[in-house]
């Protein structure tokens, strides 16, 4: 067993989804059966979730914690050719702020809370507890890798994991766009005077409290209930900048009291965002 596979199995045992990378830090291409989206599994990798192919296809979507998959015959050739191991941060409930140079590191040290850091070839990875949408080039020399993305495994790093701060979430925020989705109301628009009606504390608090209650009261179909609740909250409150990390964590906590894992919560949230085009 080669070193890359050994590292991958150790990470998977800790509930971190992993995949092999080719030399040059890039994923293996899709297998012949999946070329040009023939398989229908993850067209253009725009859909959150794992790949069901028996080979390491579809980049980040190939990441898995299943040792039988990692050591299966479909992955054997990839591990023999692998130049590195990568992991899916969002699938592990993590976000990586990828700092490419000294200027980016200097910015992070004066802007972001300290957390676990891992040295890279040119800079550092700052790793936070919590998942969010990924984005490249959020500022000079800075990428955010979390859901629907992968990061190279470069070691455990040093320092203590810190909860994902609002300052990192703000890096990927763009001007909200109203979208329609089937059987979902349009995202709320701002009032004519430019204010946001959801900034009334009682209105937003009531919405979050009702969502928590709905999750907690579920007696079956918890996965579906959590997803529908996340979808409803984002549909009502997600388009005008009112939701904060604290609100999301309240919803995640309610889901976890019903037995949902952080990964399930993260995937449900990401799926809801994708459904709404956010």
So what's the overall shape? globular
Q: What is the N-to-C succession of helices and strands?
A: HEEHHEEHEEEEEEHHHHH
Content-based structural category: alpha+beta
- Largest sheet: number of strands, sense, barrel closure: 6 strands, mixed
Instruction: Provide the low-confidence segments as ranges.
Output: 42-47, 175-192
Helix residue percentage: 25-40%
DSSP summary: helix tally:
9
The strand count comes to 10
Distance separating the two termini: 42 Å
- What is the arithmetic mean of pLDDT? 81
Strand-residue fraction?
5-15%
Description of the structure:
The chain is α+β, with helices and mostly antiparallel strands. 35% of the residues lie in helices and 14% in strands. Strands 4, 5, 6, 7, 8 and 10 form a six-stranded mixed beta sheet that branches. Helix 7 (222-237) packs across helix 9. The termini are far apart. Mean pLDDT is 81; it is low at 42-47 and 175-192.
Summary, kept brief:
The chain is 35% helix and 14% strand. It contains 9 helices and 10 strands.
Topology:
Blueprint lengths: L2 H11 L4 E5 L3 E2 L39 H4 L2 H9 L2 E4 L6 E6 L2 H10 L4 E4 L4 E6 L5 E5 L2 E4 L5 E2 L9 E2 L2 H4 L31 H16 L5 H16 L7 H13 L4 H14 L3
Parallel strand pairs: 6-10
Antiparallel strand pairs: 1-2, 1-3, 3-9, 4-6, 4-8, 5-6, 7-8
Helix pairs in contact: 6-7, 6-8, 7-9
Question: What structural keywords apply?
Answer:
4-stranded antiparallel beta sheet; 14% strand; 6-stranded mixed beta sheet; 10 strands; alpha+beta; single chain; 278 residues; 9 helices; globular
